[in-house]
Prior knowledge:
- There is one protein chain.
- The chain is α+β, with helices and mostly antiparallel strands.
- It folds into 4 domains: 7-126, Beta-Lactamase; 158-259, PAS domain (Beta-Lactamase), CATH 3.30.450.20; 264-319; 344-487, Heat Shock Protein 90.
- Helices cover 44% and strands 26% of the residues.
- It is built from 15 helices and 17 strands.
- The chain has helices at residues 7-14, 16-22, 41-47, 51-54, 66-83, 128-157, 176-182, 191-196, 200-216, 261-297, 306-335, 348-355, 357-362, 381-398, 455-465; strands at residues 26-31, 36-39, 85-94, 100-111, 117-126, 161-166, 171-174, 220-227, 233-244, 250-259, 344-347, 366-370, 376-379, 404-412, 415-422, 470-475, 479-487.
- The strands form 4 sheets. It has a 5-stranded antiparallel beta sheet with strand order 2-1-5-4-3, with helices on both faces.
- A hairpin with a 4-residue loop joins strand 1 (26-31) and strand 2 (36-39).
- Helix 10 packs antiparallel against helix 11.
- It is elongated.
- The termini are far apart.
- Bound molecules: adenosine-5'-diphosphate.
Amino acid sequence: xxxxxxxxxxxxxxxxxxxxxxxxxxxxxxxxxxxxxxxxxxxxxxxxxxxxxxxxxxxxxxxxxxxxxxxxxxxxxxxxxxxxxxxxxxxxxxxxxxxxxxxxxxxxxxxxxxxxxxxxxxxxxxxxxxxxxxxxxxxxxxxxxxxxxxxxxxxxxxxxxxxxxxxxxxxxxxxxxxxxxxxxxxxxxxxxxxxxxxxxxxxxxxxxxxxxxxxxxxxxxxxxxxxxxxxxxxxxxxxxxxxxxxxxxxxxxxxxxxxxxxxxxxxxxxxxxxxxxxxxxxxxxxxxxxxxxxxxxxxxxxxxxxxxxxxxxxxxxxxxxxxxxxxxxxxxxxxxxxxxxxxxxxxxxxxxxxxxxxxxxxxxxxxxxxxxxxxxxxxxxxxxxxxxxxxxxxxxxxxxxxxxxxxxxxxxxxxxxxxxxxxxxxxxxxxxxxxxxxxxxxxxxxxxxxxxxxxxxxxxxxxxxxxxxxxxxxxxxxxxxxxxxxxx
Length: 488
Ligand code: ADP
């Protein structure tokens, strides 16, 4: 016998009564009618009673909660009758102080000669901890579901299309924006449907890139054209990053599709603009070079007949280059928000007369000015002059057969309205809303008239800066009126 175990200890271990009473579980025996006839100390302690208060005084059902009592009558008793035992039923026992605790309850029936249940031996284990864990798990699940819902709400709210894919690259979630953009059947889309939305020029390259990235675990970054629900292709930047678990294994991919159509269009426009601008600048420069060559050739023997013409031609071309460079400078000033106004109060009629001098001297057009000769306004005179010159020059350029150009101005309540009217060919209705856009030209082939499509854009910005309004009225075949207002 090992030394540590002495006789008294052995006696204690053999003491069935001590084992019964000190067991870490509750024991209770009751008669068929529920009257408790035996109970161990553990259960007495849990319940908060003495043996005398319970034995032959209380029935087992007295310790069950209301719901437990119904279950006990409807389920426990019939089951015990039929099968002779029950295992691990979950009940709540009510203590002497009214509080309750969760238990697991197993019991065996003791039958008499007629096979009827005479008594019940039951074992009760405290289930409070387990119930507690179960509650925590339920709570955690609820929290996780709540978070999932919040994520989905967020995911559906953002203006970007986002999606997730399984580790093998199969798309398993797309947000509402994605469904809406492609007009997909709600939540039941297949990979093939999504692939069919990729432009045929980009589809194969996307599939092979995506496959390679899924294998290598590298971020995806690809630009492609996607077909929207209006059956139009738009450029998108498709990005995806892998999500790795603690073992560094990829468990998910998070992806997005950003619409970069406007950006692509702007880049294309910029390229087109660069080529137009270079062409526009090249024409007067080439002409200027030709003139200078002629002047060079005749420098030792200048022809008095040709000289003034050549100088005038050179001047005209240099003015053209100067005005083009001026427009480009104006636009870059506007882009950097550096259009500063220097306001003074000036006489409007005088300003108009000065600004149209060049048209009058050419003698081709009849410039008519209508308005109160005394009317004054506080504005940036040189900028307003620039706007008027632009409108008048456009009338000269785009309405060459209009003999008369009318410049009018009048006070209307808190503002002065300026109009420049020609009797030219007019502008098609559908083009009118875009006239003041940057780079916009009605005849974009640009063959007939030269220009950068910047003049009206600059005018609009100058007027906006003065808190004025601007617009155009035009009738095909009848002529055009460009107008703007300035507050006074
Ligand atoms: P640009 O003259 O350099 O093309 P603008 O911004 O000044 O640029 O003008 C934009 C477009 O508006 C022009 O290309 C022209 O087609 C149209 N436009 C401007 N003024 C008139 C006008 N008086 N009559 C007809 N079309 C005009």
